[in-house]
Amino acid sequence: MKNLMVSDLVTDYGHVRALDGVSFIANAGEITTVIGANGAGKSTLLRTISGLEKAKSGTISWGDLEITNLAPEAIVRLGVAHVPEGHAVIPTFSVLENIEMGALFRRRKNSTDVKVAISEVLDLFPRLAERIKQSAGSLSGGERQMLAISRALVSRPELLLLDEPSLGLAPLVVEQIIQSINQLCRSTGLTVLLVEQNANTALAVADHGVLLALGKVVSDQPAAKMRADSALRSAYLGY
Amino acid sequence: MNTFISTLITGTANGAIFALAALGLVIVWRGAGVVNFAQMGQAMFTTYIASNLINSGESYWLAFIVALISGSLLGMIIDLLIMRPLAHKKSSSSTKTLAATIPVIASLGILAILQALAGIFWAGEERGFPTPVNSFYFKNGAGTLPFSAFNLFVIGVVLIVLLLLTYFFTQTGVGLGMRAAALNPEVARLSGIKVSRMRTLSWAISGAAGSLAGLLITPSTNLSPNTLDLILIIAFTAAVVGGLDSPLGAVIGGLILGIGIALVTTYGSPENVFLAILFLLFAVQLIKPNGILGGKQVRRG
């Protein structure tokens, strides 16, 4: 079991300092949620961990390995899968092709396990199994989000980075997706780092909460405490 | 009637070659985001290599294979030595539109270099290029059939290549990876696909396709450093008519141009071929600006 440890991470996004010395630990087998307002640096945090953005300084450790500024295609091979914001699928690909894409790099060595992994995600999201041959562009928003998560899961990650899975989805669908992730984490020991603007939803399932504001960590505590902290909520989350 | 049929068959055979060249352009455009003006320069260069081998007594088939391999190697070298470093520079460039034109201008430079090198190595002399099978019309008793063995060979080879490419892109993991890298590099990288390697592979496949087009067209155009310029214009038109990002569109565009040019040459006059190409390009841009099978995004310029 590996922890994710982020220390003093600084990342610039264009000319803006998006992350200004962020430190926290995401414990193995737990759901850690990163919440905060728009522009707090949540997405940049995930993008820096998965290698899409370059860190200016600071370190990211995954278990015993330092993964700071490795290429994304190297980081996913170490068991860290990132589902970026905005239901990231390829619309002209079929549902199956989108899922297979996530396991391409494992296909030559583990072709049988790839088949097992694909059938597992289809069990997790049966709606995708029904639409396996359709193009991803024909799916609803919720199904597309499920597909994006499936693409990440077939790489057999130990750490899943989830960026705003609730974006633009109906509350019922959000609940369904979050519960699937929760169930997966509890049953397989998957470590999850969940970025959400919808703090209520995220804190309801998370073990731990990290609150970001303007690129800095302003609170880092068990999710239950954060839920109960009304001063914090009204100051940063607006409810 | 015989004239008409022979025009159609010659047009289809030439159209198949244009389709191949257009497909090479489409593969690099989709895979690496570059309109490669050097494509037929590369083909000219590798056809010279094949021609030299044949002249020194080697078999046509050995020369054929060597040309295809050197075509894909040349494509890879261009990507690794020129396009990849440019892509790294690109991100620091001031404006996006300016940055997008840099590799295109580089490809024009590569074309100039290849033509100059060919001039130095092979003295710019125009030479013929052989066909592996007879290019005279089949004899049928006293009369002739309206096509040659070489016509059939060309159509057959291009058909096989198209089927192989279709299989590769739709049925294999690497093909899926290449398409993913072209359509959404970010998601592809997050899926563990080595996007820059996929780009190099696009250049290699396109280089081989261009080389094949060069080998098949030079028996009718002869070979000199500049003879394939016209083929580039035709292939580019075919690719744009087909939609630039659609492989099937490139094939259809190639066939339309091949048959169209053959009809204009037979029933009009050969001098009007350029005018006809221009007219076709103009008409397609006017009626369907994104080409017959092009995507929805608007192209400007």
Topology readout:
The complex is a heterodimer of chains A (239) and B (301).
Chain A: E1 4-13, E2 16-26, E3 31-35, H1 42-49, E4 57-62, E5 65-66, H2 72-75, E6 80-83, H3 95-101, H4 104-107, H5 111-124, H6 126-130, H7 141-153, E7 159-163, H8 171-188, E8 191-196, H9 199-205, E9 208-213, E10 216-222, H10 223-228, H11 230-237
Parallel strand pairs in A: 3-8, 3-9, 6-7, 7-8
Antiparallel strand pairs in A: 1-2, 1-4, 4-5, 9-10
Helix pairs in contact in A: 3-7
Chain B: H1 2-32, H2 39-55, H3 60-90, H4 96-122, E1 137-140, E2 143-148, H5 149-171, H6 173-183, H7 185-190, H8 195-221, H9 229-242, H10 247-267, H11 273-287
Antiparallel strand pairs in B: 1-2
Helix pairs in contact in B: 1-5, 1-8, 1-9, 1-10, 2-3, 2-4, 2-8, 3-4, 3-8, 5-6, 6-8, 9-10, 9-11
GO molecular function (chain B): transmembrane transporter activity
Main location (chain B): membrane
Transmembrane segments (chain B): 12-32, 60-82, 102-124, 144-169, 200-217, 223-241, 248-267, 273-293
Structural write-up:
The complex is a heterodimer of chains A (239) and B (301). Chain A has 239 residues and is an alpha/beta fold. Chain A has a domain of 164 residues: P-loop containing nucleotide triphosphate hydrolases (Rossmann fold, 3-Layer(aba) Sandwich), CATH 3.40.50. Helix content of chain A is 39%, strand content 26%. Chain A contains eleven helices and ten strands. In chain A, strand 4 and strand 5 form a beta hairpin. In chain A, helix 3 packs parallel to helix 7. The longest helix of chain A is centred in the last third of the chain and has 18 residues. Chain A is globular and about 50 Å long. Chain A starts with a strand and ends with a helix. The model of chain A has no long low-confidence stretch (mean pLDDT 92). Chain B has 301 residues and is mainly alpha-helical. Chain B has one domain: Orthogonal Bundle (ABC transporter involved in vitamin B12 uptake, BtuC). In chain B, 74% of the residues lie in helices and 3% in strands. Chain B has eleven helices and two strands; from the N terminus they run ααααββααααααα. In chain B, a hairpin with a 2-residue loop joins strand 1 and strand 2. In chain B, helix 2 packs parallel to helix 4 and helix 2 packs across helix 8. Chain B starts with a helix and ends in a 14-residue tail after the last helix. The mean pLDDT of chain B is 89. Chains A and B meet through helix 3 and helix 4 of A and helix 6 and helix 7 of B.
